Amino acid sequence: MTDQTLLVLTDIRKSFGGVEILKGISLDVRAGEFLTLLGPSGCGKTTTLRVIAGFETADSGEVQLEGRSVAHLAPYERDLHTVFQHYALFPHYNVFENVAFPLRVERLPEAEIRTRVAQALALVKLEGMGDRTPDQLSGGQQQRVALARALVGRPPLLLLDEPLGALDLKLRKDMQLELKRIQRELNIAFVYVTHDQEEALTMSDRIAVFNAGNIEQVGTPREIYDNPATQFVADFIGAANILDAKVTRQGASDLELLVEGEVAITLPWVGAAPAAGTSLKIAVRPEQVRIAADRASAPVGSVLIESKLLESVYLGSATHLLVSPFAKSSRVVTAVWLNLEKKSSFEAGQKLLLQIQPRNIRLLQN
User: Which of residues 236, 262, 291 is at a domain's end?
Assistant: First the structure.
């Protein structure tokens, strides 16, 4: 990946039947990067992809590819290729001819077609399968043929609309790694649509999180997971304990909060901070909530909260603990106990001391 900008979307708006689906999407794609558009169904990510491809025309806004506007160009004029969830292979063509199809449309010499198809099939590990027809292939192999057909034209940017959605879980995970390998090997940009958070975290250089026609946050997987900008991002990407809080004091280097109206905590803080009296949300990942043996053994500066265990769920490598840390609030907090060398049993009703490092508490925009 480089810092060179390949594609720029500026204030893209799109409505269907009077309902605004895209509400001013602005986004850039860098050369050689794997960018994922992530969000729930109906959030606008596929519509954004279709606007990039030219299958939909934006009501307003600008689409620029390699520094030139392409909004007026038909899909086949944009030098882009799309891989769909349903692979749209030609059933009467064999694998070779399916992959060769875009090259034949360009009327390339037969020798070049054969060379480039062979290279594309080798890239997706389908050497020797050129004579098979789509009905002789597994779902994963069909997906690879569709990918080879999209790559054989050597586009600068490949668009992928949930291409792994039809595969079983194990094959899907295998293909995630294969797609990332192919993308790195070719060093071309991928724009990938999915609603699967784990898939996005596994494959992406950057993630754009969509919600209700807007982009809530763009960043690396680590930035998105560790520093969610909004409540939606924190709740949608992985699991998070999201709690109500109010700022009780704004210090020169710290911030005091009252959580759920009961628990006072102090966070180190540098720079602009919300004023005293501000209501906000905080987020803590379950794996960042630890169980302390007692107050004396907890690291200095830890946030310690007395709680009662409601339920424990054993998951092999870890046990998920559902706890009630507040007397007046019914809010439940999830903690994760890693089942490594220690073996501990947990019983509903027992007292637990929650331990949270202040650096793991995130303030969220409402």
Answer: 236
